[in-house]
Amino acid sequence: MVQVTSLAALFNRADATALPALGGMARPDGVVIVSERFFAFAGRDGSLLEGEMPRLPGLARRVPLLRGIARLGMSVSPLLRRGGIAGRLERLVLFAVVLAPIAFVFLPSRAALVAGIVMGIGLIAWLMRGRTLYLHGAEHRAIAAAEQGLLGRTWDGQARPSRFSLRCGTNFVALALPMSLLADRLWPFAPALWTPVVVAVVSLGLTMELWRAVQGSTLPAARVFLVPGLALQRLTTREPAIDETRLALTAVASVLRRELG
């Protein structure tokens, strides 16, 4: 009862305050919510893991492409850091997926294509296992509740903000795929052993720059770039139950409690 009362007080305060931007990540066993300074993981088993986000160096904030890669790396920090959300085995799998394209360079082109497709399908199936799709919808709803000043009403079930988000990583992926193909097609230098890695890094940096520009734009036409990602979210989210929404709101509350001091 004390916890519910303290949550209600926090939500009432947050609903009347200008809040920092929040992001998140859904997992089979819980929801991660992050701000620029803090992160929290609320588990389905009732656990709550709290931590601080790494600081972006001053130089990385100003240099185009570099700042995009740095922000992308920071976004997965709660997942990949030692003592973070993911276990040792899961971290090894994720690092293997990141490094796999380097190994594909030594394969024939057809074998590399097949291997890439198989790895991609396997990764998607693994990431979307369990209740991930429902918790993904809950993560979006909780963040939207914070942005719209509806935290308290959403906790009580009186409001149901959208489970779709303009800032979802799905939108980033939907932009990254064509960007990587375009970068590969327009790469001006002779192919070398390191070319696939450099092209991948450059395309991710360009995608992050485009994504942030679209997010900050007030032009309605800019939203066209988000249409594929929003359509894809119909596959990557499901309508969450109230207890799943409250799980995501618990992680939001942890971050906001520290942000609001």
Structure in words:
With 261 residues, the protein is α+β, with helices and mostly antiparallel strands. The chain has a domain at 164-236. 61% of the residues lie in helices and 8% in strands. A four-stranded antiparallel β-sheet has the order 1-2-3-4, with helices on one face. A hairpin with a 3-residue loop joins strand 2 and strand 3 (38-43). Helix 1 crosses helix 12, helix 7 crosses helix 12 and helix 9 (169-186) crosses helix 11 (227-236).
State the end-to-end distance: 22 Å
Compressed to H and E, one letter per element, the order equals HEEEEHHHHHHHHHHH
**Low-pLDDT residue intervals, each spanning 5 or more residues:** none
| Beta-strand share of residues | 5-15%
Indicate the structural class.
alpha+beta
Q: Strand sequence of the main sheet, in spatial order?
A: 1-2-3-4
User: Sheet with the most strands?
Assistant: 4 strands, antiparallel
Rg, Å, rounded: 19 Å
Helix content: 55-70%
Total beta strand runs: 4
Mean pLDDT: 83
SS field, number of helical segments:
12
Shape: globular
Brief account:
This protein has helices at residues 2-15, 58-62, 66-75, 77-80, 88-104, 109-127, 132-148, 151-156, 169-186, 195-216, 227-236, 242-259, and strands at residues 23-27, 30-34, 38-43, 48-52. With 261 residues, the protein is of the alpha+beta class.
Supply the key terms.
single chain, alpha+beta, four-stranded antiparallel sheet, 8% strand
